[in-house]
Amino acid sequence: QATSWRRLSFSNITALAPMVRVGTLPMRLLALDYGADVVYCEELIDIKMALCQRQVNDVLQTVDFVAPDDRVMFRTCEREKDRVVFQMGTADPERALTVAQLVEKDVAAIDVNMGCPKEYSTKGGMGAALLSDPDKIEAILRTLVAGVSKPVTCKIRILPSLEETLSLVRRIEKTGVAAIAVHGRFKEERPRHPVHCDYIQAVAQAVSIPVIANGGSLDLVKSNGDIQEFRKAAGASSVMLARAAMWNPSVFSGQGLLPVERVMEEYLKYAIRYDNNPFNTKYCLCQMLRDKVESPLGKQVQSAQTNAEISEAYGLQDFYRQTQEQLQARRDAVQSGSRP
Ligand code: FNR
């Protein structure tokens, strides 16, 4: 089929940014429902992913990558197959390739995180540590581009001077990547600092591949209409949103922002349907609750230990029960079908 061979395009798109803990399957599906074109998974570390086994989950109708301790590190499904970008943390070309080849037929593209300034990323030479090792960047990206059939991209922060930033992105472009996401902040800048749109603009002019502008959530992008403004201010082909989407993923919707109460319910339905880890479900709901996290609802969410208890907080017990019945029916069918 022609569509299954179409490569994901990164030009003129709006994307859900990679976010640790936030970018799991329920949030990605919700972002797609509201109109995101592309959704990045949370950063997954190559060393951990390399130990995972790919398992088809017939009950949930997902593909799971399961660690030796049975934890599901990455869960995906048909619905997002042409839209999900697998982001990894890596500092090793060969290991990166091993992981990329493990997941490539289940995802639309592979991304390398080169912007995370947190210690757990940089201590292994990953994330923003890569920015000071362009030879390593080149080796990783070239190895991936040559070794996988899907588009390869990377996400960087800006370097201390414009010259250095431009020389880096020109080197990156030569590796054959399909796009570059640029978080317009310096490595030591915090998320509350203003984003440097002038740097992103200069990058977009310096390369011919699509540039995905990132970093606009706090001061620039509060509603859907602001996305276009940010795109223009950054002179970029595309936009990637992290916090604005984490607070209310309906920011992707051209119909306007939905009340977050309703968005949380839709989120929770996906979390139930895909058996999301309850602590992850809670974490994401608390991000959406924001300053209401100490409200009666917020307290109920915080004290819940299971998806069933979280459902009660939102009055979704019936939905929870019906979904469990459906999943049980499928479990029974799968088990009887596999009998000799
Ligand atoms: C992030 N960010 C991030 N970046 C990345 O490349 N991989 C990741 O796993 C994460 N994890 C993550 C978690 C959370 C909770 C936040 C808020 C952020 C950074 C993110 O993708 C983005 O670059 C910045 O947040 C700036 O974009 P916004 O928030 O201004 O749209």
Descriptive account of the structure:
The protein is an alpha/beta fold and 340 residues long. Helix content is 44%, strand content 17%. The protein has 15 helices and 12 strands. It has helices at residues 2-5, 25-34, 46-49, 93-103, 119-122, 134-147, 162-174, 197-206, 224-234, 243-247, 260-273, 278-289, 296-303, 307-313, 317-337; strands at 14-16, 38-40, 44-45, 53-57, 62-66, 72-76, 84-89, 109-114, 152-158, 179-186, 211-214, 238-241. The strands form 2 sheets. An 8-stranded parallel barrel has the order 1-2-7-8-9-10-11-12, surrounded by 6 helices. Strand 11 (211-214), helix 9 and strand 12 (238-241) form a beta-alpha-beta unit. 42% of the residues are buried. The model has no long low-confidence stretch (mean pLDDT 96). The site of ligand FNR has 24 residues, from helix 10.
Keywords, separated by commas or semicolons:
340 residues; alpha/beta; 15 helices; single chain; 3-stranded antiparallel beta sheet; binds ligand FNR
